[in-house]
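Title: Comparing notes on inverse folding

I've been comparing how different people in this forum approach sequence design from structure. To keep things fair, I'm posting one structure and asking everyone to reply with a full sequence. Here's the target:
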């Protein structure tokens, strides 16, 4: 089945490509350098202040996202441990027995009744 003009196949293949890390943006070069005047210096200071604010906001977003990712990783680790314990209880039926009784716990095997 080929890709039609409205198919998502090309988009999906592009989305699975590894991300290239961003490089530092290069300063804009001017063919005629700015004059070193007070107003030019204040303009550059303003530019740097705006860039600083943008980078601080981006850093805050990244830190927030990092916290979300770490919380999700903790949830996944807990779920994996829980599933591992459940899988081991299936492998070792003696572990599911109630201690000292030799009987299986009711949580794993519910009681059954038969009518004749």
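Reply #1:
Here's my take.
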């Amino acid at each position: 089945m080929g890709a039609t003009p409205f198919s998502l196949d090309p988009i999906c293949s592009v989305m699975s490509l590894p991300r290239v890390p961003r490089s530092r943006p290069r300063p804009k070069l001017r063919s005629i350098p700015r004059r070193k005047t007070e107003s030019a210096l204040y303009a550059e200071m303003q530019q740097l202040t705006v860039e600083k604010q943008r980078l601080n906001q981006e850093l805050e977003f990244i830190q927030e996202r990092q916290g979300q990712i770490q919380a999700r990783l903790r949830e996944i680790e807990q779920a994996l441990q829980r599933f591992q314990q459940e899988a081991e209880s299936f492998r070792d039926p003696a572990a599911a027995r109630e201690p000292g009784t030799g009987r299986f716990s009711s949580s794993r095997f519910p009681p059954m009744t038969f009518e004749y």
